[in-house]
Give the backbone structure.
Amino acid sequence: MARRTKVYEGKAKVLYEGPEPGTLVQYFKDEATAFNAEKRSVIDGKGVLNNRLSEFFMSGLNAIGVPTHFIRRINMREQLIRAVEIIPLEVVVRNVAAGSLSKRLGIEEGTPLPRPIVEFYYKDDALGDPLVTEEHIIAFGWASQQDLDDMVQLALRVNDFLSGVMLGVGIKLVDFKIEIGRIWEGDFQRLIVADEISPDSCRLWDMRTGQKLDKDVFRRDLGNLAEAYTEVAARLGVLPSNGKAMTKPTLVN
């Protein structure tokens, strides 16, 4: 196999130069991290599951006209994506109180919110990815007011899509995080969904039992993370309906 040029390595993924200009290869690792990587482990098969689940969600968004960086899956751990200029913000949409929102505002976890709430966090691990306001974003030049309006609209469309998909398989979409990137078409800028959408970046609860099926299983030591992700994949049809949790899952093509 030809030696590839690494462009970037994060906690859960590696980006390599793609085969064509304007493309990258995104490789999903098996590492699991929490609390800004203070807690970490290797979960066999996690990268395979997240690759396939992110493919499922990104393909679905593309199909309904929500633009993403996803082009196609290459193999079990890699996908071909468009190179984008990432806006240095994490966009979080919350439907139910959980995590930092519950701690910050003293709202009991599990409380339904009156409407989806969109929050912005500045991407900086050294600072702990702090919550920021639109005033901060515009003042420091991270994005324009038009960018922010477009980002909110994109995030809410993603929320509608994910909520409906999850509802259909008995899963409650509590909240999720996306990243958004800029692409240029001539002199015109367009914003698209980038990074990944997977149980690493969502809170997912079983609607009947309340069982957590996301990275909180790892954060809070609630059980086997691979089994939780495998359950999500099986319900969505990414795994066979009789798929069993495996440390190294075999997924359908």
Summary: The chain has two domains: 6-83+229-235, 85-206. The CA atoms of residues 161 and 243 lie 25 Å apart. The helical segments are 46-63, 99-105, 134-139, 145-167, 216-219, 225-235. Residues 241-253 have pLDDT under 50 and may be disordered.
